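We treat protein structure as text, and this decision shapes the records that our systems exchange. Such a record has a labelled line for the sequence and another for the backbone structure tokens. The record that follows is passed on verbatim for readers who wish to inspect the format:
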Amino acid sequence: MLSLSSLFSALPRLRHAPIPVTVPSGTFGARFRTQIAPRKVKYAKRQKGRIPIPTGGSTRGTTLAYGEYGIRIKGQGVRFTAKQLMTAEEVIKRAIKVVKGAKVYMRVFPDIPVCIKGNETRMGKGKGTFEFWATRVPTGRVIFEVGGVPIREEIAREALRLAAAKLPTTYEFVTRKSLPRLGNMVIQPTPLIPDPPSPVSTETPAEMS
């Protein structure tokens, strides 16, 4: 039998014991909780959509913003999945870990839920169930950047080359000096046109008077 002294001695241990917390099941996207995903979305399901085509003349997102080197889409626009982006990011981190303080910057984020219906399923009865997260990226957008500390170009180029091998479409290596792109066209800087010289009068002072 338990004595009163043993019960009182066990009370402090019971008071500080951790209380188990049950995580509610059925969370949206719980199947791929280890992948990168948005914290909150407005709609649980979205239409398939199309990859945007940069026709408005904007060059936003086509140059480096955080790092010193990066990769940019050179081929056709593509839809990236969260798994593809995570795999490429891990490859870059593994390649640049020899440089202390080096960082990887992901310029795109998968925030579009993709729903898939099973094979040999009859038409109708609503949209399919959630499968994975994805994002649509047009031509000319920067995907990954490497920087944070001074890093050799050879190391950054090799790390980004390995990451590009894990992703679809083709890419190009860019630096801080790379020019912006508008789709498949590189925007050249507009040369400054000097003002025309003012005409010089050839009249003599006597003729002017």
